[in-house]
Amino acid sequence: MTTRPVAARAVAFAVPSRWSGRAVRRVRHDALWPDGRVEYDVSLVDAMYRGAPADYSAVAHAVADRCPELGPGPWIDEWALEVDGPGLPAGRAVDATEGARREFRPLPITPWRSHPRRWRFVVGSLLLAAGTTGLAVGGAVGPAGFLSFLPTVSGLALLGSLIGRHPRR
Questions:
Q1: How far lies 147's CA from each of 23, 132, 153, 154, in Å?
Q2: Which residues lie below 8 Å from residue 43, measured CB to CB, with a gap of 6+?
Q3: 3-state DSSP of the chain
């Protein structure tokens, strides 16, 4: 008989956050032992790690990748293959202290963010203004001239990168 489980799975569930009360996704791992018993909320490292990081990495990635947003994922054996196993028992309450907090996978539609063209224009203009002011006040000679030359060139490069670009739709 082996000292490690034959398969593991991830179970994702939502619990209210401790402070905000919003739903937070948590993931716990279950282990399936050779005698058919299921152990809940186990450490995946303790259950499936066999002394070689590459072996554990394949199992950990397979368990995490096949876990749905909410609910149980399939049973994954030590070769990172799906195997048959028992389902979730009916009526088992989910404890809010189980599992570890995991972020939801990114949505297929990316949320709005400020346009990178606007950022380049503002920063490029500020660098160009600071550099040309430094060159006008201190002159273009010596270390002060060189230190004024750097933001001027950086600002021109940022502003030049805006030329000829089409906005993404």
A1: 51, 11, 11, 12
A2: 29
A3: CCCCCCEEEEEEEEEECCCCCCEEEEEEEEEECCCCCEEEEECHHHHHCCCCHHHHHHHHHHHHHCCCCCEECCEEECCCCEECCCCCCCCCCCCCCCCEECCCCCCCCCCCCCCHHHHHHHHHHHHHHHHHHHHHHHCCCHHHHHHHHHHHHHHHHHHHCCCCCCCCC
Looking up tokens 């947003």 gives 69
Q: What is the CA radius of gyration of the chain?
A: 27
**pTM > 0.85:** no
**Whole-number Å distance between alpha carbons of 153 and 132:** 10
Torsion of CA 146, 152, 153, 154, to 10 degrees: 110
- State the 10-residue block means of pLDDT for the chain, 169 residues long: 78 80 83 87 79 74 88 86 76 56 51 70 92 85 84 90 68
Dist CA 73 CA 62 (whole Å) = 10
Per the document, the length of the chain is 169
**Rounded CA separation 72/123 (Å):** 47
Give the up-direction half-sphere exposure of residue 129: CA atoms within 13 A in the CB hemisphere. Answer: 6
